[in-house]
Amino acid sequence: MWVKVRVGESLSELAREAAARTRTISERLHRHALVTPLTGWAAATEETGTEILLKCEHQQKTGSFKVRGALAKLLSLSDEQRGRGVVAASTGNHGLGVAHALSALGGKGFVCVPEHASPVKVAAIRRYGVEVRVLGADPLETENQARLLAAEAGMSYVSPYNDLDVIAGQGTVGEEIVEQLDGRDRPVDTVVVAVGGGGLISGIGASIKAVLPGVRLVGASPVNDAAMAASVRAGEVTRVDALPTISDGTAGGIEEGSITLPLCAELVDEWVLVTEPEIHSALRFMIDTQHQLIEGAAAMAIAAALKTSRGSGGGATVVVSCGANISSAALAEALLSAHLGGESHRSVRDN
Amino acid sequence: MWVKVRVGESLSELAREAAARTRTISERLHRHALVTPLTGWAAATEETGTEILLKCEHQQKTGSFKVRGALAKLLSLSDEQRGRGVVAASTGNHGLGVAHALSALGGKGFVCVPEHASPVKVAAIRRYGVEVRVLGADPLETENQARLLAAEAGMSYVSPYNDLDVIAGQGTVGEEIVEQLDGRDRPVDTVVVAVGGGGLISGIGASIKAVLPGVRLVGASPVNDAAMAASVRAGEVTRVDALPTISDGTAGGIEEGSITLPLCAELVDEWVLVTEPEIHSALRFMIDTQHQLIEGAAAMAIAAALKTSRGSGGGATVVVSCGANISSAALAEALLSAHLGGESHRSVRDN
């Protein structure tokens, strides 16, 4: 299993292309994004009986991996495209990522947010010196109008996940993991990654499996909102009746024709779905033993890693702790729920 | 104000000695402790109208500055003293610091904890491979018995604050701040530091004022437990009727004859006492805008920095965010209080 090969011969052309773009973009991307630490987590290792390693992407600039995809996309544009500018729609980590990328690379563009978006989140995007446009009544309408606006103005729309360059940017997480594991005596069996639109796991899966084809890639999603797992199972983009989840970063449906669907179908070896109480408990465990703040999506991936590793008796598990951007309100509610040991009693959805 | 001088001519001999030991120990200490970042905090700068810089000691190894003092103490011992070993009493940051120092430097020794100490905290100390001894029914008894035991065995007792080498170790935080500020155009007026026993502010004050004598050093303590502020006011070690505080890292009385009393009396220019709701609110503000976890003592210092900087119209303020070791229970309680209370910076719905 622990044999390095230069090219993932068994990978599809799409996955090979993603991994190739990751290698191409990596050096320029790292001028504006951190190589985040891969650290041991003694308490989780004790708890599960399997060595658990944390890829600390919650320490990334902007507090999330999304900045990697945004940087990769902007870096992939021609001078002419850059001159016309970029448009993104998001009040969350993707919006912050695009704002940071624009600020770092000096490009033209703006971030669209829905009416009634949280002023705290809008202020966070504005602090990068990037224009914020209020557009549409809800996130879906904002996205549709932003795409339309981009098309009309000849600007590039930056998708949060359905774009091979964005996927290649997220793939630099996988590339770093491979480098950080280099020289270890004991093999890493499993890599666990949060899945929403599937951009992160597609990028990481392609870049890791191009080098370490035997690694088991686990996709983690909330039981309450697992559109990609359902779509992979069905073999086509599938709508699910989503319930609220503290893993807001992975919430939402998959758009028709998403290239992440074939990538996930190919690359993900196993799906682990976790309940809200499991996510709350993982968040609490991280705070009590590592004293680091993580967001719902990261706690969700960690909950899945703890679940799949407990008593597995195998080699080490790497879990990607993908972000830190949680509101104090959602955090308080989750911790309260973890302490009370019951189901969360009200929604913690982003507003 | 912003003039560097080689030696703080106006400093007492004790303060000069502390600063000298800081310079002596610094290089060896940094083989086992991080130079933590000094970062801008845009949201706090907006909120106060004064530039706020965070010294991110909550990102230090063991999650707290205490590791510096422990390393400095161990490094100051002769080979013979090291051979006989060290004893510390603490279930908190000091215990972790001594455990890390012993593990890093390979010394002999153990950490004493009271009966009924939190198993989570005891496990955290044990993870450094250091022996933990259960001794005494409460922290004061543990400390007294540990001292006795050390004296009988000819071992060195490592005080959490009443020791010039420990103080010199904490002083490396001040030395780093001076180096990190070097080359800035705009002056730094104020440095805000949490005060319990006074070891951190004594070390930082001595090392900063040796180079930048004009900096205003602000001591921060909770209204509920401010023994050093009361002692400095009284000119002698003074007991206070302490109330509970989330700033557990600064809680407790000052022992008779503490060298931190004359150092604080000399070096601290101003005392700012903060209420529990102000601390909860600062913790919430940090989480909502920086998405980093800090402990009560760090939130306490930040609350004082926000209070003293608001509308001051002066140069920048550096606040030492001294640690991250908060339990999820204390965190949940503080955030709940911040959301329910009237002292919040932003409304709950904004998050």
What does this structure look like?
The structure is a homodimer of 351-residue chains. Chain A is of the alpha/beta class and 351 residues long. The first copy, chain A, contains 14 helices and ten strands. Chain A has a six-stranded mixed beta sheet, with helices on both faces. A four-stranded parallel beta sheet of chain A has the order 5-4-3-6, sandwiched between helices. Chain A is globular and about 55 Å long. Chain A starts with 12 loop residues before the first helix and ends in an 11-residue tail after the last helix. Residues 1-8 and 342-351 of chain A have low confidence and may be disordered. Chain A binds chain B through residues 42-43, 46, 63, 118-120, 123-124, 127, 283-284, 287-289, 291-293, 295, 324-332, 335-336, 338-339, 351, and chain B through 42-43, 46, 58, 63, 120, 123-124, 127, 283-284, 287-289, 291-293, 295, 324-329, 331-332, 335-336, 338-339, 346, 348-351.
